[in-house]
Amino acid sequence: MQKCNANSNILSVLSLLKDHTPEETEEQTAIPYRWCLVLPLADGGCLKTLLGDVRSRKLAFPLDFKDLIFKKLVKAVTFLHSHNLVHRDIKPENVLIDGNGELKLTDFGYALDLGEGGSVSDLAPAKINLGTVSYKSPELFNPRYSGAVAKDSDVFRKFDFRAVDVWALGLSYLVIHFMMKPWDEASAEDLYYKAYASLYKSEEVAKQYKKLVMNNAFEKSAAFKADKRKSFEIFCRIKSMDTKEVVIRMLDPIPSTRFTIKDVSRSKWLTQCVDDNKGLSDWVKKAARG
Ligand SMILES: Nc1ncnc2c1ncn2[C@@H]1O[C@H](COP(=O)(O)OP(=O)(O)OP(=O)(O)O)[C@@H](O)[C@H]1O
Ligand SMILES: [Mg+2]
């Protein structure tokens, strides 16, 4: 946690305290204490509330500011992943706004330190499938998507939590821009997700995504036309092809071919995104004040 204090878009930890109230674990064995984090006050509410307020009050929300908010989250996650840390519960609700109008990723309740090897080997399946259901990536519902070999224990050992973060960040982009997600959950039970995944499925994903993006395949598909809820419409609403490509590749159902956070941060779109930090924090401060 100490390492995270160096990043301006991650909420710093002021102190770590031991609470000696005994806590019951899942196994019902009492442990002597639990850790408590002392955090600085971020009294501007969370990003999700800000997005809702902006919409209900019909405030102007420039596209550049939406992109910059996303870019800041990408920077925070790039920092985490470069230090072998994964968050595992990325969503606008877990981004707080401080008194300077700065956005701070927080809620490290499910975070893991992967260590030098970049993976964990001793997690029980119940400790893997954590996070917020609607932001969970498909491999959390079906571990075999992870592309690992057949034995169940190996599937879990090779789990790539960085890819899980990128997926949640891709959905966060859609929520920041359009206040909606294209499906309720990325599982075979969800018809909208199933339709999306079947469009995406290909042995040559790298070529396929271009076809999907360039030919507006989502929009032309039978699934899209039959989509009464217009869930896929959000993909059409992304005007820039560069942006659309990045978002769709962050939402690659196969974790091994999904964009990494480096791919996202080095994309033409984000490198060209204007860093008007002062403009954004002034706007956020005003909007958060209500
Ligand atoms: N440092 C802070 N400053 C101000 N408010 C905070 C701070 N930390 C947490 N909160 C408030 O508490 C809420 C929940 O915090 P957090 O996400 O860390 O905990 P949680 O147990 O995971 O809750 P949830 O399940 O709602 O995500 C935040 O959305 C925010 O409203
Ligand atoms: Mg939370």
Automatic annotation (TrEMBL):
It comes from Babjeviella inositovora NRRL Y-12698. GO terms for molecular function: ATP binding; protein serine/threonine kinase activity. It comes from the Eukaryota. It holds the Pfam family Pkinase. GO terms for biological process: mitotic DNA damage checkpoint signaling. Residues 1-270 form the Protein kinase domain. This is Protein kinase domain-containing protein. InterPro entries: Kinase-like_dom_sf, Prot_kinase_dom, Ser/Thr_kinase_AS. One of its GO terms (cellular component) is nucleus.
